[in-house]
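re: the backbone from monday

yeah here it is again, tokenized this time
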């Protein structure tokens, strides 16, 4: 987590014991009011990150349209990671808020998600818990497991070798903040763009999956300078694939 001041606040209808548990994880004090920097707000709706006039709460129900049978097969990531294996395992080594993980889970993968930032992990954990209560999402998120910690250190401890490792290291900050959506503006207060690119890629390669898929800016350099086996380009991003 960055040096931005943070508190955990119990809002209306929020559970005090949950706030205290999150407080210990993120190493921030519990407060009765919103802080001057960033605040993890625990209220009846769940957990949200607020600050600087912005608010972020994970909500997988917003992706239901993309997860429908008619649309899922058209997702670039799903096309690239299509497999005929039974019960395939995927690792999302840089999970963030889990949007790509849920696409993989909807496509049939068991997904292990690693998130090293305790605040983002708290938001993702809350989003997963609420999704499990949604009949339309319950089966999909049942295939998703969150591990809070650094994937560079922990990927080698997986019980079985994954078929796929997905890497989405945060892109470098854009100079014009107006180009960055609200979610990324807050997340960038917590995590800097990936600086350990070589360590991340080396850790993924050491696990020896069948395929590594890396999300990159459309005109960005390959991760850690490693030339991919092939690339698939979209309108704004590119997926580099190492087979």
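seq for it, each position gets an aa:
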């Amino acid at each position: 987590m960055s040096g931005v001041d943070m508190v955990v606040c119990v809002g209306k209808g929020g559970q005090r014991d949950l706030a205290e548990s999150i407080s210990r994880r993120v190493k921030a004090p519990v407060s009765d009011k919103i802080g001057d920097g960033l605040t993890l707000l625990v209220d009846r709706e769940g957990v949200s990150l607020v600050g600087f006039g912005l608010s972020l709460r994970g909500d997988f129900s917003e992706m239901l349209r993309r997860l429908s049978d008619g649309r899922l097969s058209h997702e670039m990531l799903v096309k690239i990671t299509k497999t005929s294996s039974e019960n395939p395992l995927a690792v999302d080594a840089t999970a963030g808020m889990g949007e790509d993980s849920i696409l993989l889970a909807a496509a049939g993968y068991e997904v292990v998600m690693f998130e090293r930032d305790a605040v983002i992990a708290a938001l993702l954990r809350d989003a997963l818990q609420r999704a499990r209560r949604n009949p339309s999402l319950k089966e999909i998120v049942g295939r998703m497991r969150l591990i809070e910690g650094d994937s560079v250190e922990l990927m080698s401890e997986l019980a079985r070798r994954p078929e796929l490792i997905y890497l989405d290291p945060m892109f470098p900050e854009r100079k014009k903040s107006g180009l960055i959506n609200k979610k990324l503006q807050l997340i960038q207060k917590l995590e800097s763009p990936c600086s350990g690119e070589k360590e991340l890629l080396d850790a993924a390669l050491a696990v020896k999956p069948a395929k590594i898929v890396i999300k990159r800016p459309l005109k960005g350099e390959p991760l850690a300078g490693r030339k991919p086996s092939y690339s698939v380009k979209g309108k704004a991003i590119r997926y580099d694939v190492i087979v």
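The longest helix spans residues 118-131. The longest strand covers residues 211-217.
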